[in-house]
Design brief:
heterodimer, A: mainly beta, 54 strands, globular, B: mainly alpha, Serine Threonine Protein Phosphatase 5, Tetratricopeptide repeat, two-stranded antiparallel sheet, 19 helices, 45% helix
């Protein structure tokens, strides 16, 4: 590592004159803050003019080190070295101990006398062994960690334009899969830590932000993140008990530092376009194909020759061009941080305005944060983090009748607007749904989330080894939805609605911590916690149909033909006790034991409480003399762990039988003028529900060699989830819906490798590279007495009435249920085809039961939607002040059910004609009898849930490429400047036929519908330029 | 510092253990929901609703026309996106068919709602007459649901509990004999409990229960029950309704054109015995999409879901009824008018099921008639004739229909000729109205109907069947359930 690399905020170099200016500024900032907070938290540094000590700090090569923090031990006096590595400060007496520290270097303490001049040489801390990582309810030296965790720190993504936490995680941590389900700005993202355990439950990891459990990463400005730890094995996650089974993402936000104030201003601008477009027929070709189809089916041609000639001459409508656009994004951020040795602050602002690549969609974000902490006395420290955010989503959802799908189904021969200038209401030839452009523009789907997260805490040391930490947190979310569908997409019955929800999550955590080393070899770290959490949500909505003045939209619901209202309430409580013991013998042998007891109101009293124990062992081989003798390993550690974690993956009230009362399910119109609300029995109740438990085992190895230049870690794990909570679908004749039950066992196993190092470091040039790859296998071990369990949802409803997924013992979760497509019947098979009522050119499917009919009994498992491999490769090439970051990311080993493509290739209930150019390669009797694309035929049956529309989703993409230049100091007086240009999703290697192999219709928490593409909002290709100023 | 210590300890244990008992505020939970008349009434609304969840379940989607397409009054597009419809027209229905589940699911969800009332009304506290009315409507709905299911599928699960029991996943189908017994008993209860007239346009009544019972008896006289003794019961029950028509509020609307205009507008008339009313202008999911675009030609922005078979149209006697029933001159987008023979599909369309001229074709308010007073008259005519020589009331009943249709009255026919004339009259009067297929089935005349099929119709595939396969989603969950 060269210190010439661009450095992190907080480690920045400023010349003395600027420092003085900033000192004034800091006072100004501070005064402003003092109005809002406690004056006592910000004592200012005052310098007396006596007992001067001077000196210079150099690195191991003898070069001066600017920015090193120099403090006087036992006082609040401190300063940083200047551009030339020089410092001078006053001692209160005739002498004292100076403490020199700099990130990546070993801390040094030197005793000095007043009036002396010293030269200090800092040694690099290659092994980073003293690095401290955040674990649940405390911190631990990284070298002492027995569990399996991945760390991502701000410096890992500083060279990339990251607008949300998931982008910081994507491809950077082994065992962590990040999939952008939706390419919409602010859209849905799926994050999995070591696969998915739960069928029913949310498989998203638990987010803990500055100790607040269950935070929402959407509410984080990524620039505020100092580091992210992903806890993966049970020994690290069991401390989160009933919510730890899916892994835990611990986010620590930045704090001010005790060195000097710093103001960072950054801005970026980017431009996005859709990754690719479908190759669809132009108007003339489409008309020709439609007529060919009519001819082959024995009906009159739809288009006259004159019309076709007209399309040839004048063209038609390219619906994809009509709805996709080049979308700009702007982001501006300001952060100020600083403080004294006792009290520090960080204040940040963020404004993001991101337009979507689909017409009239976008995302805006306003964020503010203030993190304060202060050491009030030797014994008492307090902290207070407050963050507020507003997120504004416009038209970011992607249902089946979204513009993206309809752009694929509408006939290119249909104009966007009629001769009168209004939108064409319906497509006479293709899609049966609404005009894509009207869907994009005559519809408003606004979702605004305003949130505030406050967490305050105090830490009190009773004596040196024993401390108590008490924290209180409030997470408040206010969600306002505003929906409007205008006359052109509602057949002139415009509708509007408003929703309003308030979610309040209260948390109190009390942690008692005891740290002591007995006889110099027995190190003990004991933690005991009592924690309680309460979630409440209330919601109401109001809907209006047949608006009297449609232009008033959702702002005047009373003026309408009919109105309805709804409201709901939900609450759950969690009360927990937990304890953990970390024991280290002789800094070589490590033991961690933890236990947590959770009680949840979601279950009936008999099943409310559950206990989650864990144990982990570590052996620091590198501390053993026989390994030290080899002089190869800077670090070598073996780890092993076992633990139980849980999932209360059910919504509140699942053990009770409740009724549905919404108008859709239960509102009957007994007259043509009104709707009477009623109640319909909802899902069947299961009062016997209990916790879902995951038992996990992990074996890991951490290794550092070549003086820290190469780091390698590997983990192998097995997780068994038992009493699996899942929704068993019930037959319609028994009332339909589903019943939540504890059924069966699922096994997840996998291996993960992380390799990082500095392959080249010579002179001004260096190349740092980090590669990770994970393999994960899922196996359903048993599902009780059932033969198979079908998913309860049907993403392709309307095209296919069967459940898309099934769960079968011996198979993986995410197994697609469908027919095996065998191509088309060929002329030589006419007799065989006839038995099925088909003829050559028609679709042929495997007839498993041999009854010469394609029925439900011919369905089988045809593929799997859960990726088996995920990989990331991050490279930074540095030459002087120039830095190039190249980041590849990939997901491999999964299938996608591609309804979107299927719809372009068939006449189906949603679109009456194929639109894809590939339809010209279909089977044509007497012309093309080898094609496996079925002929136009009245006897042909297209089944969407078949291998015909199942595709490999594998992809590797250049997720990010970014070139940045850090201007040499002094280029602009007193200002640090870095500029960058970059591109996201520049190219993708994939065979997938749709817009984007990554985007799906799945909801982030669930894995039941993974990898289905039914008009999912595609990801975009983005070019970005930006600048970062530091003062 | 001691003070601080104390404050800390106090803070840390401030909350302590609260109750983990759930507080399901805002939720309607368990049978206590039915403890009041209002609750029971809400549950009844919820028992009607599954019959009319647009696109999802019940009758208010063209699924109701799809499942009956084996009949000669309905057919569908030979091409386009009508694979699911064609399967019925061609007697080649896969258990994967997505249309029939609307009917299956709607009827069974309605049965569950009715069972809930029938099994729990005793816990309701309130006005006995109000409770009886609700209970009677529930019995009617359960009978109606089973009547549709048994005629379409032939062997079906018999469910009388609203509570899920895992044992239900192993039950096998129950045949017509037992199902009809239950339908009769439910309708007898419904007759006893309800008021004479319906309390709202889309609700049922004592008169409707008697009328449905007459229809059930007539069906039981034919296949598969083949119990001749039921004809007399059918005639008696129909006569009871006819004789009490003023009491029940039933009568023919003298002008067919007025009747269908009202139907399209959703305005109730005395001809409705039991009809599903819809409010598409309230919500899209309260609309009757079996009418409007579904019934209209592509040339008029329709979906071509269903229209009449050619032979049926050609045999249909001319007159005011034919004019009201069919839409034969199509207006293209450019304003030119073409006869049905020149449309893309070359079939006559239904006028009855179109949206009003200025109305919304995608989300119609139109009423869906499951039984009209005309049914009662023709049930009587046929049933009476099957018990002997057609009497004067049998003639007057059928002639009331014929006269309104612009046809000459019948007279002096033999029993057999009279019965055949009534069956034809039913086909024409109720063209497209969920009657003809069930007549074909109970009379077992499918081979003759197919023989008459115009060569231009979709070809028959395989051996024609009267019953539909049980949906695959159901047999996958309960493998004992096959028909």
């Amino acid at each position: 590592m060269s210190k010439n690399l661009p450095v992190l905020s907080g480690q920045h170099v400023v010349d003395p004159s600027l420092y003085r200016t900033l000192s004034k500024m800091k006072r100004g900032v501070c005064k402003a803050l003092c109005l809002f907070y406690l004056t006592a938290l910000f004592p200012l540094i005052s310098l007396a003019q006596s007992n001067m000590v001077k000196g210079v700090v150099k690195d191991e090569k003898g070069l001066p080190m600017p920015g090193v923090s120099v403090g006087v031990k036992g006082t609040s006096t401190g300063i940083v070295t200047d551009n030339n590595g020089h410092f001078s400060l006053n001692l209160s007496g005739t002498g004292g101990d100076l403490v020199f520290s700099y990130i990546g270097y070993l801390k040094q303490e030197v005793n000095v006398k007043s009036g002396s001049t010293v030269t200090i040489t800092l040694q690099p801390d290659n092994k980073n062994l003293s690095e401290v990582v955040v674990v649940g309810y405390g911190t631990q030296k990284k070298s002492d960690v027995t569990g399996s965790l991945s760390s991502v720190s701000a410096k890992d993504f500083k060279d990339q334009p990251v607008t949300r936490l998931d982008q910081a995680l994507q491809g950077r941590a082994s065992g962590v899969q990040v999939v952008n389900n939706s390419g919409a700005p602010g859209g849905d993202v799926k994050i999995r830590v070591r696969g998915s355990n739960s069928i029913l439950g949310d498989n998203n990891p638990l987010y803990v932000i500055d100790g607040f459990i269950g935070g929402d990463f959407n509410n984080l400005n990524p620039d505020d993140i100092a580091n992210i730890e992903i806890l993966k094995d049970a020994s690290s996650t069991a401390i989160y008990g009933s919510r730890g089974a899916n892994g835990v993402v611990l986010v620590t936000t930045k704090r001010g530092n005790a060195q000097k104030p710093e103001i960072t201003v950054s801005s970026l601008y980017s431009s996005s376009t859709v990754l690719k477009k479908y190759d669809l027929l132009n108007a003339a070709d489409y008309a020709t194909v439609v007529n060919e189809r009519a001819a082959e089916l024995g009906v009159d041609p739809t288009y006259t020759n004159d019309q076709i000639a007209g399309f040839k001459a004048k063209g038609g409508t390219n619906w994809q061009d009509q709805i996709f656009r080049t979308a700009p994004t702007q982001e501006y951020k300001i952060a100020a941080s600083g403080g004294t040795a006792k009290s520090q602050y960080l204040v940040s602002l963020d404004y993001l305005n991101q337009k979507g690549i689909v017409l009239n969609s976008g995302y805006k974000r306003y964020a503010v944060r203030s993190n304060l902490n202060s050491q009030i006395s030797d014994k008492l420290a307090v902290r207070f983090n407050i963050s507020g955010m507003r997120r504004e989503n416009l038209n970011n959802q992607s249902p089946v009748n979204a513009p993206v799908v309809q752009a694929l189904g509408w006939a290119p021969t249909t104009p966007v607007r009629t001769a009168a200038g209004t939108y064409t209401i319906s497509d006479p030839v293709g899609s049966i749904f609404q005009n894509p452009v009207a869907l994009a523009t005559d519809q408003t789907n606004v979702f605004n989330n305003t949130s505030a997260n406050l967490i305050g805490g105090a830490n009190y040391h009773f004596f040196k080894d024993l401390s108590l930490d008490v924290s209180f947190g409030v997470d408040y979310q206010n969600q306002q939805g505003e929906y409007y569908s205008g006359p052109t997409i509602t057949n002139n019955i415009p509708t509007a609605s408003r929703t309003s929800a308030e979610l309040v999550n209260l948390q109190n955590t009390n942690t008692l911590n005891y740290i002591h080393t007995f006889n110099k070899v027995h190190s003990l770290n004991v933690t005991a916690v009592f924690e309680q959490q309460k979630y409440t949500s209330t919601m109401f909505n109001a809907n209006a149909t047949n608006l009297t003045f449609y232009n008033l939209g959702f702002d005047n619901l009373a003026l309408s033909g009919s109105q309805s209202a709804g409201s709901s309430y939900s609450r759950s409580n969690l009360i927990s006790y937990l304890g953990r013991v970390n024991y280290t013998y002789n800094d070589k042998y490590l033991l961690t034991v933890s236990v947590r007891r959770d009680g949840s109101s979601k279950f009936q009293p008999i099943n409310q409480e559950s206990t989650f124990p864990s144990v982990a062992l570590g052996w620091k081989l590198s501390e053993e003399p026989f390994i030290k003798k080899l002089d190869i390993f800077d670090q070598l550690k073996l780890r092993g762990s076992w633990g139980l974690t849980g999932s209360q993956a059910i919504s509140p009230y699942a053990t009770l039988s409740t009724y549905l009362s919404d108008l859709f399910s239960a509102g009957m119109s007994f007259t043509s003028t009104g709707v009477t609300s009623g109640i319909v029995l909802g899902n069947a109740a299961n009062p016997k529900l209990k916790w879902e438990t995951t038992e996990a085992k992990d074996l890991g190895l951490d290794m550092t060699v070549l003086k820290g230049r190469l780091t390698f870690s590997a983990d192998a794990y097995v997780k068994h989830t038992r009493d699996l909570l899942l929704s068993l679908p019930l037959p319609a004749f028994a009332g339909g819906g589903s019943i939540v039950s504890n059924v069966g066992r699922v096994k997840n196993s996998g291996i993960e490798f992380n390799l990082s190092g500095v392959p080249v470091s010579s002179g001004k040039f260096s190349w740092t590279s980090a590669f990770n790859i994970s393999y994960q296998k899922n196996l359903v071990e048993n599902i009780g007495s059932l033969k198979n369990i079908f998913s309860t949802n049907n993403a392709g409803a309307g095209l296919s009435s069967q459940p898309e997924f099934t769960i079968v013992a011996g198979q993986s979760l995410g197994s697609y249920w469908g027919l095996k497509y065998l191509g088309t019947w060929k002329p030589s098979e006419a007799a065989q085809a006839a038995k099925f009522g088909a003829k050559p050119g028609d679709s042929r499917y495997q007839d498993i039961d041999g009854d010469n009919a394609i029925t439900g009994s011919d369905f089988q498992i045809i593929g799997n939607g859960i990726p088996k491999y995920s990989l990331g490769w991050n490279n930074t090439f540095t030459y002087g002040n120039l830095s190039l970051n190249v980041f590849f990311q990939g997901l491999l080993g999964f299938d996608k059910l591609d309804y979107s493509y299927g719809k372009t290739m068939t006449a189906n209930p949603e679109a009456r004609q194929a639109t894809n150019v590939a339809i010209r390669d279909r089977y044509i009797p007497g012309v093309n009898e080898t094609s496996n694309i079925p002929a136009f035929s009245a006897t042909n049956k297209d089944y969407f849930q078949s291998t015909r529309f199942l595709e490999k989703g594998d992809f590797v993409r250049l997720k990010n490429i970014n070139l940045s230049y850090d201007f040499p100091k002094g280029t602009i007086p007193n200002v640090g400047l870095k500029v960058f240009v970059g591109a996201t999703n520049l190219f993708t290697i994939t065979k997938y036929k749709g817009f984007d192999p990554e985007s799906t219709n799945a909801v982030s928490g669930s894995d039941i519908t993974s990898s289905i593409d039914n008009g999912a909002y595609p990801n975009s290709k983005t070019f970005t330029a930006g600048a970062i100023f530091k003062f | 510092m001691k003070k601080i210590t104390l404050v800390f300890i106090a803070l840390a244990f401030a909350g302590c253990k609260k109750s983990l008992i759930e507080d399901p505020r805002g939720q309607v939970v368990g049978t206590q929901a039915l403890s009041t008349v209002a609750g029971l009434n809400a549950a009844l609304t919820g028992a009607y609703k599954p019959l009319a969840v647009t696109w999802v379940s019940g009758f208010t989607t063209a699924a109701v026309d799809a499942v009956l397409m084996g009949s000669d009054d309905l057919t569908t597009h030979p091409a386009s996106n009508k694979q699911d419809f064609r399967e019925f027209d061609q007697y080649n229905v896969s258990n994967l068919n997505g249309r029939m589940v609307n009917i299956w699911n709607g009827c069974y969800k309605s049965i569950q709602g009715a069972n809930n009332i029938i099994n729990n009304y005793k816990s309701t506290v309130g006005d006995a007459a109000a409770i009886n009315q609700i209970l009677g409507e529930a019995y009617y709905l359960r009978a109606l649901d089973y009547y549709w299911l048994i005629r379409l599928w032939g062997k079906i699960p018999l469910i009388t509990s609203e509570v899920y029991d895992p044992a239900v996943l192993k039950i096998s189908g129950t045949g017509p004999a037992e199902i009809y017994k239950m339908i009769e008993s439910d309708l007898a209860n419904a007759e006893k409990l309800m008021a004479n007239k319906k309390t709202d346009d889309g609700r049922t009544s004592k008169g409707a229960a008697s009328a449905l019972l007459a229809d059930v008896y007539l069906t039981e006289g034919g296949w598969p029950i083949n119990d001749n003794s039921k004809f007399a019961l059918a005639a008696a029950k129909a006569k009871e309704v006819i004789d009490n028509k003023a009491l029940y509020g039933f009568d023919l609307v003298p002008d067919l054109n007025t009747f269908w205009q009202n139907t399209k507008a959703g305005t109730t008339t005395s001809e409705e015995v039991f009809s599903i009313h819809n409010c598409g202008t309230c919500n899209w999911f309260n609309s009757n999409t079996s009418t409007g675009a579904s019934a209209m030609p592509l040339e008029e922005n329709g979906w071509d879901d269903y229209f009449s078979e050619i032979r049926f149209f050609n045999d249909f006697p001319a007159g005011v009824r034919k004019n009201v029933t069919f839409h034969t001159v199509i207006t293209k987008a450019d304003g030119t008018k073409i006869p049905w023979q020149n449309t893309l599909v070359k079939h006559p369309y239904y006028q009855k099921f179109r949206a009003p001229d200025d109305g919304n074709i995608n989300s119609p308010n139109s009423t869906l008639h499951l039984m009209r007073y005309a049914h009662v008259l023709l049930i009587y005519a046929e049933a009476q004739a099957r018990t002997g020589v057609p009497n004067e009331q049998a003639y007057s009943s059928v002639n009331a229909i014929r006269t309104r249709a612009g046809l000459a009255p019948l007279s002096g026919l033999s029993s057999t000729d009279f019965i055949n004339a009534v069956i034809n009259e039913r086909a024409w009067e109720f063209a497209g109205e969920y009657t003809r297929w069930f007549d074909i089935e109970r009379l077992q005349i499918l081979p003759a109907i197919i023989a008459k099929r115009d060569a231009a119709e979709n070809p028959v595939i395989g051996t024609p069947k009267y019953y539909l396969p049980i949906p695959a989603a159901e047999t996958q969950l309960d493998p004992n359930l096959g028909n």
